[in-house]
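ESCALATION

Customer reports they have been waiting on this structure for their group meeting. Please prioritize. Original submission:
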Amino acid sequence: MGGAAFNFRLNDEIELLRLVTVGSVDDGKSTLIGRLLVDTKGAFEDQLLAVTRKRGPASEAEVDLAMLTDGLQAEREQGITIDVAYRYFATARRKFIMADCPGHEQYTRNMVTGASTATAAIILIDARNGVMPQTRRHAHILALLRVRHLIAAINKMDLVDYDQGRFDAIAAELRDFCRRQGVEDLICIPISALKGDNVARRSEAMAWYEGATLLETLERLPAFDDVAQKPFRFPVQMVNRPQTPEHPDFRGFMGRIVSGSVSVGDPVVSLPSGRRSSVKEIVTFDGSLARAFAPMSVTLTLNDEIDVSRGDMLVRADQPPPRGERTVEIDLCWIGDEPLRPRATYIVKQTTNTLKARVEEIIHVTDIHTLEQKPAEAMEMNDLGRVRLRLQRPTSYDSYRDNRATGSLILIDAFTNNTVGAGMVV
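Update from on-call: job pushed to the front of the queue and completed.
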């Protein structure tokens, strides 16, 4: 949680896009991913042979596509996806990293983890069942996480006789649900992952569909986030003082630029102290640079000996600063086994900063069916809602809408050390 969903150009022709696949149990995620791997030649021959042998002759029609992705023995036994698994495939135009997330409500925490760094999401929907509660839950979480592009792959169209009316009804219901949450980019595609209809090739059985196939859509989505265009944010991960004969006075601040850019000579401010200096040098393993930008990991040296420690944030003095109050409101996905209650204390991890926080108030819990916001005395596992926290000390953060890296945090149970909540600053 909290990592910027950066995508970057590998070279002049090939781009990388981070995806997440979600959906209810048995909506066909594993089959779809297996289909993508086969159609993009992303599955190894020995893998295909292994899953083909179980079904008969080595022809594509006999390949059990789900067996290519349900890697865990427990998953194969239950026929569901349990953990987040990352799949890699490529076309001539783009490379993809796909987080395959579990569909069962019990594993919502895994889904949040997989979606937190994604730029686009595929929501699987079984055409026979339509929009299910878990579909709404996933769509709501994706909206909260500001995943920019949602693709609803309405699957198993072969089992509803490729009925356009059925597709239109499901697409209309989902569009209405997403519109009420401010989702700007929702693309609905009728597919059959098992048959391959509209996945990599157009479906002859659905000639009424005039849009792009799923793979064409994935290739056309904008791959780049605009993190490099946002204000400069540099959470300090480590202070480097080697004190060697070669570098007796070196004092650099190591970390990853999570947004924006910085150049030698730029005026900077260390937060929360507010002390000012300017960039003396930008050091990397491959030598010094005149300019660096997100998501590069660099070491910065400053022209003044100001106090900067791990957890502090360097920002440019000539750009809008982050907020720095002790009280913060967050949209929270609660994934703890024990309920969250007011006055409880947790450890907050935000960028490189770790501190305690107390729950001041549960402002509301959201009904995922109606999006109604209801008052509540506690948040149970997988509840979504808004919470006000009182931080141990002033902390630098942006709203999640403005910056996914500095606007996100996780809550950790101090006794079990388990992550129990994922929050997005309002």
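Sent to customer with the following note: Residues 1-12 have pLDDT under 50 and may be disordered.
Escalation resolved.
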